[in-house]
Amino acid sequence: MNSAVLTTVAATGFTVAFFHAAIPTHWLPFVLVSRARGWSRGKTLFVAALAGLGHVALTTLLGLAIAWFGFQLDEKLGRLFPWIAGGILLAIGLYYFWRQWRGGVVHHHVLGAHHHPSEHCGHGHERSHWDEELKDSRLVETKEGDWTAISGLFVMLTLSPCEGFLPVYLSGVQFGWRGFVVLSLILAVATLGGMMLFTWLTLVGLEKFEVKNFERYEAGLLGALFTLLGVLLIVLEH
């Protein structure tokens, strides 16, 4: 394992985190609440960044647990670990391919929304199910102060960690704590950058920017990336 492989893992992690941030739940709630409450563009981006930090922090903590567990296994299993880690990544890849085949949407439900699975999670909807789900969200309807809305947005995103990035931490175990730090920085940059970009694009009036395909094909993209990582680990070890 060398720096070139770590670069490949990091690039894969960036792709996973950035396209995960493109899912509407990472920016649409902030835009809708902003419009309902008359927030300025700057305040909306600040709230989105604050919630994004919570989202990244929880994901990083979960990644820390995975990395620590991986370090223990790596120490005990030695050369067997890349085979096991690669096999796990391949299994995760197949799981996401199965989810893509079943519908493609990796659901991230909104706090306080009234869910109607038959209306939002089916095949072939032209609009993101978040467009409808968020219309009835208490985050938009609340009549209380801004801090109530801000707290709701923060909790909503923080308690929904980037599950797709966690296997990337597993693939970086071979690089020790250096790999963990690099991947954590990649997670923060890609997630916050993606959230800021899509929030800003919508705030400036590009509501027709096509994002539904990110949501529709998220599972397939994750499946391909984790399969690639699994094969990479096994082939390099071989």
Structure overview:
The structure is a single chain. This protein is an all-alpha fold and 238 residues long. It has one domain. It has twelve helices and no strands. The relative contact order is 0.25. About 9% of the residues have low confidence.
Summarize the model shown:
The chain is 73% helix and 0% strand. It is mainly alpha-helical and 238 residues long. It has one domain (3-237).
Layout: helices, strands, pairs:
Layout: H1 3-21, H2 28-37, H3 41-77, H4 81-102, H5 117-120, H6 129-133, H7 138-141, H8 146-158, H9 166-171, H10 176-203, H11 212-216, H12 218-237
Task: Pick out its properties.
mainly alpha, 12 helices, 238 residues, 73% helix, single chain
Strand count = 0
CA-based gyration radius:
19 Å
Total discrete domains = 1
User: Into which percentage range does the β-strand content fall?
Assistant: under 5%
The H-and-E topology, N to C, reads as: HHHHHHHHHHHH
**Helix/strand structural class:** mainly alpha
Largest sheet entry: none
| Average residue-wise pLDDT | 78
Low-pLDDT runs: 109-130
Beginning-to-end CA distance, first to last residue: 11 Å
Q: Helix tally? A: 12
**What oligomeric state do these chains adopt?**
single chain
Give the CA-based shape: elongated
Helix content: over 70%
